[in-house]
Structures are given as C-alpha cells and as structure tokens.
Design goal:
Layout (H helix, E strand, L loop, with lengths): L5 H16 L2 E5 L3 H12 L4 E5 L24 H12 L4 E5 L18 E4 L4 H14 L2 E5 L11 E5 L7 H12 L6 E5 L9 E2 L6 E2 L19 H19 L1
Helix pairs in contact: 1-6, 2-3, 2-6, 4-5
C-alpha cells in the first residue's frame, strides 16, 4: 500500500483502500464545488478520475476555485486539475474531457465505465441529463444543488432530492425528475435563502458594476460566491463518494 494513504487506511481498512484504488469517478464540472471534490478524491486514493469541463481558468475564479491561481489563468480547467492531481498522487489515472456536457452530447460518454458520478455543473438541462444517464446505467450519482449567493456553509445537508426544501434549484430538479419517473437522487443542498447580489456583471469578462439596477451594459447578473461555501459542498460530496465506494 502506498505510504501516503496509511492514515486513510486506518479509517477504511486495507479492503476499503483497495476498493478506492480500483474505483473510477467522473466529475462533471471542475469549478468551486467540483474542483474541491476532485482534490479530496485524489487525496483519498481514488484510482481513476474523469474530468469533464470545457472552461478556462479566469481571474474571477481565484476567490473560490482550488485550481485558480495567477499562474493557471488562461489554462483549461481540466489541464490545471490534472497537473494538481498528479502532483498529489502520481499513480492516479486521469481521463480528460474538454467539453461542456449537454443532453446533446450525453451519449458520447460511456457511463457504464464509471463507479460514481459527481454532478457539479450549473445548467438544469445538463444536470437532468446526467441523472438520466446514471439511472439508465445503474451508476451511483450525487448532485450539487445551488451554492451561489450563500454565505453559511454549516447549512449544507445530504438528502434525497424529494426531501429537500427552500433551495430554488432543488425545487426545479424535483419537479423535472418527478416527470421523468426518477425515484431518488442523492444531493448536497442548503436551506439558506440565497442573497441578492450587490453587484452586476457586464457583458465584458469579469467586470463587476456596483449599480444594483441591471441597466445598459449590466446585462448579466453574476451569482455571488465565497471561498468557503462551494468548497464545503465539494468536500461533503467527496466524503459521500468515498464512504459509499469503500463500503461497496
């Protein structure tokens, strides 16, 4: 056994660590939530991680994304994440998918290869497609609900989607998944009421305006975020994945 995982082995035992080393986890969305989940998976001994994201690191990511540094700005997130994970565990296998996951390209992924799927993407259509593909292939999935515009990480809970409340994204997902006859979905969500952002983003990249009225060039409202809310959601998600896989 690799010496770097001896402390983890004290918790999960040799059999549990070997299960983790044989497991393949797909992380859809390498942002504030997904990035922290990836790091925890690698530090826990997961043997194979798929990274799915088409975005590049930008300056506005630095406040919350673990791969976002001035030295990584401009790099594809999957490349920055790969470098970081290999520095944590040189033996880990990384498969990169430099694409934006949508219902239209969902069939290009072989979900039967995955032992677990982490949904850390933002679009409702993509989240629904992920849940449907995981369900079709009998693959465990955990989905992140809304973490934007929130400031209290202690309010996160792990629950089934049909037992959630307050969270607007969870409400939409409940309704859509019920229509599709999905019986259950493990999620991480918060009952904290989202705050109203005090600034608005312009059409140009990463430029925030402090006028509260989205007029003229203030065409895109940016979700506010912190260093400590999405990171906690990502670590909770990783913990659920590790505990589930080690017990299988």
């Amino acid at each position: 056994m690799n010496e770097q995982f001896t402390r983890t082995e004290l918790i999960y035992g040799r059999d549990g660590i070997e299960k983790l080393s044989r497991s393949r986890v797909a992380v859809f969305g390498i942002g504030g939530v997904g990035g922290h989940a990836c790091e925890a998976l690698a530090r826990s001994g997961i043997g194979h991680i798929d990274l799915i994201d088409d975005d590049r690191v930008c300056l506005s990511n630095i406040n919350r994304q673990i791969i976002a540094l001035h030295s990584t700005v401009g790099k594809y997130k999957v490349d920055a994440m790969e470098s970081r994970l290999l520095d944590i565990n040189p033996d880990i296998k990384i498969t990169k998918h430099n694409v934006f996951f949508t219902p239209e390209n969902a069939d290009s992924f072989d979900f039967s290869e995955f032992d677990y799927v982490i949904d850390a993407i933002d679009t409702i259509s993509g989240k629904i497609a992920l849940v449907m593909k995981a369900d079709e292939n009998g693959v465990n999935i955990i989905s992140s609900m809304g973490a934007g515009n929130k400031t209290n990480p202690s309010l996160f809970e792990v629950s089934d989607i049909y037992k959630t409340s307050v969270c607007p994204l969870a409400r939409v997902m409940r309704n859509e998944l019920r229509k599709r006859n999905i019986k259950r979905l493990k999620v991480v969500y918060s009952k904290e009421q989202p705050l109203t952002p005090k600034a608005y983003m312009t059409a140009s990249q990463d430029t925030l305006k402090t006028d509260r009225s989205p007029k003229g060039s203030y065409v895109k409202q940016a979700p506010g975020s912190t260093a400590f809310v999405p990171s906690v959601a990502g670590l909770i998600i990783a913990g659920e994945v590790i505990n589930d896989l080690s017990a299988m």
